[in-house]
Amino acid sequence: MKCRYACGSPEHALHRRKFLGALAGVTGLGTVGFFTRPAVAKQLQKKQKHMLVIYLAGGVSQLETWDPKPGTDTGGPFRAIPTSVPGVHICELLPHTAKQMHRMALVRSLNTKNNDHGMGHYQMTHGRNRGGLNVPHVGALVNRMLHPKESPLPGFIHVGRGGDIKDAGYLGPQYGSLGLPSGGPPAGIARPKGLSLEADMRRHKFLRGVNNHFLAQRRSAETEAYTYSYEQALRLMEQRHVFEVDREPEKLREAYGSHPFGRHCLLARRLIEHGVTYVQVNHTNYDTHHENFNFHIEQLGEFDRTFATLLEDLASRGLLEHTLVVVMSEFGRTPRINERLGRDHWGRSWSIALAGCGIQHGAVIGKTNKNGTAVAEREVDHGHLFHTYLQALGIDSTGNVDVNGRELPVADPAREPIEELLA
To answer: Is the separation of the CB atoms in 167 and 177 below 8 Å?
Structure first.
C-alpha cells in the first residue's frame, strides 16, 4: 500500500458495505494451526522483559477503534461489536482484534491537551512536554534499564523508519535507536564478496586500533557514538539471519499479511524472540482530515488481522507474558465530523490499547461522555502512561537514573502510574 496521509491524498472508493461483506468470509484466527509453542529461547529463560510499540502515525481515531459511539451525533457509520471480554465493545472495523481483548486493556480517558503532530509524538514517546531537560525516548530508557550488555543485538530498534542516536537524550548515544526503514537487515552488514573471513578480521583489528587511539585523545559524545556504532555493526554481521523474515513458514507470513506492515510486525516478533528489548513498528496514514471513514476502513483493514496475528503468535511462543505491547498514536481525532467527512486533530479525549505483561488483561480504564467530546472518568495523560509502561516492565518509575554522577528522575515526578491498570 502506498504511504498516503488523508490530508492531501486523492479520494478513493473503498466503501463500508463492500469491506464488511468481505470480512464475513474471513475465518477467525483462533483456529489457525501454525501457532505452535517452540523451545523457549535463552533470553526467555532469564525472564527478560520486552516492550513492543505499534505506532499508528498521524492520529488514529478513537471512535473508529477503541471507544465507538454508535447512534450519536459524533459516532459515524460503524457499529460497536462485542469482544472476548464480556461487556467490552470496540469498533466493528477490528473484528480479529476483538477476539484478542482478553489479552489486552484499554485506556479511554487520555487528555494530552495538544493537537500538534510533533509535540504529540514527543509526549507519547517521552512521557513529558518538551522542555529544557533532554529526556530520553521510552525505548532508550528501556534499553538502558533492561537490555543485557552481552547481547549481540541492539536494545532499541525502529522498524519502518530511520534510527536516531538523539532518541537517547541525556542517557548517551549508545542507547539511541537503530532504524530499519525498509524492514530488512541493516545496510552494510554483509561481508563483501571476495573478502575472506581472515582478511576481514585483520581489517577490523587495524581499524579498531585506530579508533581506540583517536578516542583516547579526543573523547566526545560523537566519537563514542561512532566507536559504539562500529562495534555494534560487527556484532550485527553475525546476526543477519534474525532480520530475514522469509525464514518463517509461508502460512505464518500469509497470516501476518504480504504488505509492509505485516512483514514489519513479523520482523518485530523475530527481534523480540532473539532478545531485542524495545521494538517500535510504524503504521502510517491515519491523518484523516477528509474521508475519515474510508481511510480507516483501509488502514484498519491492514492493521486488524496483522495485530491479532502478532498477539496470537507472541502468546503461543510464551513471549507475550514477558512483552508489553502498546498501540499508540500522537493524539486522536475530533468527535465532530467536518464538512469533508473527516475528523481533525484531537488530544482532549482519546484512547490507547495495551497487551501482554504487567497489565490487567480485560481492563478498561476511564470513560468519555456520551458522544466522546470530553473525559468523564479517570482522566490521565502521557506522563501517567510513561510511568505505567515502566512499572509494567518492572522498572521503578519513581526512582532516578545516574547520568555521569548526576541523579535524574526516570519519569515525570509530577505524575504517577495508573495503578488499577497494573497486574
So the answer is: yes
Mean pLDDT of the chain: 86
Looking up cell 464488511 gives 20
* Cα distance between residue 295 and residue 286, in whole Å: 7
Q: How would you classify the pairing of strands 323-328 and 50-56?
A: parallel
pLDDT at 108: 98
Q: Name the residue ranges covered by the structural domains of the chain.
A: 41-184+260-421, 188-243
Of 24-28, 180-184, 296-300, which one has max mean pLDDT? 296-300
Q: Given this structure, which CATH class describes domain 41-184+260-421? A: alpha beta
Q: What pTM value is reported for the model?
A: 0.84
What span, in angstroms and rounded, lies between the C-alpha atoms of 28 and 100? 11
Mean pLDDT for the stretch of residues 189-208 = 65
359 CA to centre of own chain: 16
3-state SS of 235-303 is: HHHCCHHHHCHHHCCHHHHHHHCCCHHHHHHHHHHHHHHCCCCEEEEEECCCCCCCCHHHHHHHHHHHH
Res 6 pLDDT > 70:
no
- What is the DSSP code string of 162-176? ---GGGGGGG-GGGS
Alpha-carbon span 387 to 416, nearest angstrom: 6
